[in-house]
Write a structure and sequence with these properties.
Helix content is 47%, strand content 16%. The chain starts with 7 loop residues before the first strand and ends in an 8-residue tail after the last strand. By secondary structure, the protein is α/β, with parallel strands linked by helices. It has a single domain, classed as Rossmann fold (3-Layer(aba) Sandwich), CATH 3.40.50.720. The protein is globular, with a radius of gyration of 17 Å. α1 links the parallel β1 and β2.
C-alpha cells in the first residue's frame, strides 16, 4: 500500500475526470492536496466528495496572475512536495478547419499552462533537494491523433519538456515524469461523437476505455517513494492501444 501521509501536492484540473480521480486517490493515500480548475462548481463538488484533506483554489492556466495566486495559497500552507499537471482541453476537428485563436488556446492550456504551473513551485523544491513533477500528457503526443494535431503537438511538447527538465533537476533529487492516457471515460471523451468513441473502443486490445481511476493509479505511483529512481519517463496507460518503444 502506498502511503503519502505528510505529503502535500498541487494538482490542476481537479474539477472532473482524471483530475478529480487524482485528487481522491492522493487523499486516500494520506496526502494533503491543493487543487485548481477553471470550473469552480466542479471544484466545489470534488472538494465535497473528497473531504477536508483537499482544498479547492480557483485556477486559470491561461492567466499568469491566477497561477501565481494559486501557488502562493498552496505554499503559504507549507512545503509542496509535488506538482501534478492534469488539466487539458481540446476539440477534435481537422487542422485545416481551425483558426489561429484555437491553436493558441490549445497551446496555452496544454503546454504553457503546465510549464508555468511547474515553474511556480520549482524553486522551493530545489532548495529542499526533493520533489515530484508529474504531467499528464497523452498518447496523442507520442504517436499522433487524427483531428487532434495541435493537441498532439502540445502534449508532445509536454513530453519533451518533462524529459529535459528531468535532466536539469536530477541533481536536486527532483523526479519529473509523464503519464500518457489513451481514451479515457472523461467528459472530454464522452463529448465526442458516438461513432468515434465506439471505433476507439474497438481498437483497444482490452476492448474498453480506461476509467479515470486507472490513470490516477499511475500518477499515484509516480508521486510515491516507489518511483524515486525513475525520472524522464513516459508511461502509457492505454490498454495496449499504443505499444511504442
Amino acid at each position: 500500500m502506498i502511503n503519502l501521509e505528510g505529503k502535500t501536492f498541487a494538482v490542476t484540473g481537479g474539477a472532473s475526470g482524471i483530475g478529480r480521480s487524482t485528487v481522491a486517490t492522493l487523499c486516500e493515500a494520506g496526502a494533503t492536496v491543493f487543487f485548481g480548475d477553471i470550473n469552480e462548481n466542479g471544484g466545489a463538488e470534488t472538494a465535497a466528495q473528497v473531504g477536508s484533506s483537499a482544498t479547492f483554489v480557483p485556477l486559470d492556466l491561461t492567466d499568469d496572475a491566477s497561477i501565481a495566486s494559486f501557488a502562493k495559497t498552496a505554499q503559504d500552507a507549507g512545503p509542496v512536495d509535488g506538482v501534478i499537471n492534469v488539466a487539458g482541453w481540446d476539440i477534435i476537428q481537422p487542422f485545416i478547419e481551425q483558426e489561429p485563436d484555437f491553436w493558441e488556446k490549445v497551446v496555452k492550456i496544454n503546454l504553457m499552462g503546465p510549464v508555468k504551473f511547474t515553474r511556480a513551485f520549482l524553486d522551493p523544491m530545489i532548495e529542499r533537494n526533493a520533489g515530484k513533477v508529474i504531467s499528464v500528457s497523452s498518447d496523442a503526443g507520442r504517436v499522433g491523433s487524427m483531428g487532434e494535431t495541435m493537441y498532439a503537438g502540445a502534449k508532445g511538447g509536454i513530453i519533451a519538456f518533462s524529459k529535459s527538465l528531468a535532466r536539469e533537476v536530477a541533481r536536486y533529487r527532483i523526479n519529473v515524469n509523464c503519464v500518457c492516457p489513451g481514451p479515457t471515460n472523461t467528459p472530454l471523451f464522452n463529448a465526442q461523437p458516438e461513432r468515434m468513441r465506439e471505433a476507439l473502443t474497438r481498437a483497444i486490445p482490452f476492448r474498453r476505455v480506461a476509467e479515470p481511476e486507472e490513470i490516477a493509479d499511475a500518477i499515484l505511483f509516480f508521486a510515491s517513494d516507489r518511483s524515486n529512481y525513475l525520472t524522464g519517463q513516459v508511461l502509457s496507460v492505454s490498454g495496449g492501444l499504443t505499444m511504442v518503444d
